[in-house]
Each structure stands twice: as structure tokens, then as C-alpha cells.
Amino acid sequence: MLIPRQRTPDLEVETLSGARFNLSAENPERFSLVVFYRGLHCPICANYLKDLERLTPEFESRGVKTIAISSDERDRAREMAEKIGAENLRIGYGLPLSVAKDWGLFISTSRGTTSIRIEEPDLFSEPGVFLIRPDQTLYYASVQTMPFVRPVFRELVQALDFVIAKDYPARGEYTGPV
Questions:
Q1: Number of H helices and number of E strands within the chain?
Q2: What pTM was estimated for this model as a whole?
Q3: Beta-strand relationship, 64-69 and 90-93
Q4: Could you state, in order of their start, the residue ranges of all structural domains in the chain?
Q5: pLDDT tens over the chain, length 178 residues
Q6: DSSP designation for 146
């Protein structure tokens, strides 16, 4: 289990820009926003990532670098990028499922062809949203077992304004006896 204020696992994936994403070398002003999505087969992911694409400049203005990552291969990741009109949002691909598990993501098995007639991979990770400080410690995490009811990016932008103004600490860090 990932713990706030403690170092996250390493994370390296290829991106559609051709540059390799390496979390430990990211060095944002305030945070890295890492959004794990299910893959091209997920219509909810496409709508979710469209919203993140639209808000990426607002995150950037607050010192937050964004990336969306899936276990899809390059061609499927490129198709998702085209579908969402990705111009600002980096798209990472080829996430090993062993790394997804290190991040606490749930893994699902294929149910065949989806409602949008795209075949699900045999195995894929469910969604997760993480804010990570430049020192690679966890600030915020939200992990889902389903594609539904995800954190709202507009609300996250608003929360960041509060976090920045109040220097609000990461919460949930206690690991002692209860």
C-alpha cells in the first residue's frame, strides 16, 4: 500500500512524443499528476481524459505536470490521443501490469468487445489518480476498482489552489497502531 509522505515506486514508460517519462527525473515545480487509465477500449476513459486535456494548462499554471498512462501498446495509445485531441496532455503507454500492481492499481480481465466495439486486452489496470511531489513522495491518491465515479479534475484544480495557499500537508500518513 502506498503511504502519503513516503516515496512512491519508480515509474518509467514510453510516451507518444518519443520522450521517455521517468517520474524520478520529472522535477515539477509542485506536483506530478499521474493518471492511470484503463485503455482505448474504455469510453469513460476517453471522456475523462478529454477533461484532463482541457485542464492541463490550468494544472501547468499551478506548477503541476500531467501525464495519462495505460498498459495499451503504442498504436492503441495513439488512437486514444487522437480521440481526445491530446495536444497538451502527455500520453504514456506500455505500463507493465507488475508496475501497476506496485502502484496499488486493480487488475481486470477481459470481457471481450466493449460497447464501443473495441476488444479489451486480456488484462488491464483499473483507474488511479496520483499527485506526487518533486521528491517523489505521495501527496494524494485515488484508486478505483471500476471505471465509474472518478475524481473530478476541475475540483482537483480548485483543491490545488487551497493546498498551495495554505501549504496543506499530505494526509493519511499515519501507519502506527490503532
A1: 4, 9
A2: 0.97
A3: parallel
A4: 12-21+28-166
A5: 999 999 999 999 999 999 999 999 999 999 999 999 999 999 999 999 999 999 999 999 999 999 999 999 999 999 999 999 999 999 999 999 999 999 999 999 999 998 888 999 999 999 999 999 999 999 999 999 999 999 999 999 999 999 999 999 999 999 999 9
A6: S
User: The domain 12-21+28-166: what is its CATH number?
Assistant: 3.40.30.10
Q: State the cell numbers at 7.
A: 516515496
What are the cell numbers at 38?
Answer: 484503463
Residue type, 146: M
Q: How far apart are CA 33 and CA 154, in angstroms?
A: 13
Classified as helix, coil or strand, 175 is coil
- Count Cβ neighbours within 10 Å for each residue of 36-70 and write b for 16 or more, e otherwise: bbbbbbbeebbebbeebbebbebbeebebbbbbbb
Contact in structure between 92 and 15 (CB atoms under 8 Å): yes
Q: Which DSSP state fits 63?
A: T
Report whether 110 contacts 121 (CB < 8 A): yes
Query: Which residues does residue 129 pair with via DSSP β-bridges, in sequence order?
Result: 35, 142
